[in-house]
Design brief:
CATH class of the largest domain: Alpha Beta
Number of helices: 6
Number of domains: 2
CATH topology of the largest domain: Protein Transport Mog1p, Chain A
CATH architecture of the largest domain: 3-Layer(aba) Sandwich
Strand content: 25-35%
Structural class: alpha+beta
Number of strands: 8
Distance between the termini: 32 Å
Radius of gyration: 17 Å
């Protein structure tokens, strides 16, 4: 990423490059240490992918309060006001899958469970399901979202909702269980 930014600087685009350096621009770089929110989020995602028999379809993209607008421009202020810390965005495919279908996992880390509940509406009764003890989720055809501890989780099937339904459920259950255990 930094090499790319240096090339941008060499070709006369310093404003864009400097903005990316300060904001992070959805960096996929590893956390500096093995602890902290990013490391915990990475462990949760890896455990969920393993449980769902899924593989990453690319690197995890990280968002911070400085660059959340790059991902959710219309809702960023709501998350920031509630106590947003970070977002890990990952895309997963079933192991052995050859098609274009994938599942997106957005793992938002907030300052507290109260902050998480501030950004998620209670699930409507007709789409509610229990993922883990005390973790209620909203489940629709292409979407599963829930709040657990300091996390708001949104899992979305892309390109093949019906074929990805089992993976969405497996990822959601594993994440809910993993978050409850942290």
């Amino acid at each position: 990423m930094r090499g790319f930014l240096l090339v941008l600087l060499a070709f006369g685009t310093p404003v864009v490059a400097l903005a990316c350096l300060s904001a992070g621009c959805g960096s996929s770089e590893e956390p500096a240490s093995g602890d902290g929110p990013r490391a915990e989020m990475r462990r949760l995602l890896q455990t969920a992918a393993d449980a769902a028999n899924a593989r990453p379809a690319g690197d995890v993209t990280w968002y911070t309060p400085d660059n959340l607008y790059d991902y959710i421009d219309g809702q960023a202020e709501e998350f920031l006001d509630a106590g947003f810390i970070g977002l890990a965005h990952g895309e997963y495919k079933a192991k052995g899958a050859t098609g274009e279908a994938y599942v997106e996992v957005d793992l938002y880390r907030m300052t507290s469970a109260k902050a998480t509940k501030a950004v998620m509406e209670p699930p409507p009764p007709d789409g509610r399901m229990e993922l883990a003890p005390g973790v209620q989720a909203y489940r629709a055809e292409t979407l599963c979202e829930f709040a657990a501890g300091p996390y708001y989780v949104r899992i979305t099937a892309r390109l093949d909702a019906e074929g990805q339904a089992d993976m969405v459920d497996a990822l959601a259950r594993s994440l809910a269980t993993g978050i409850r255990g942290t």
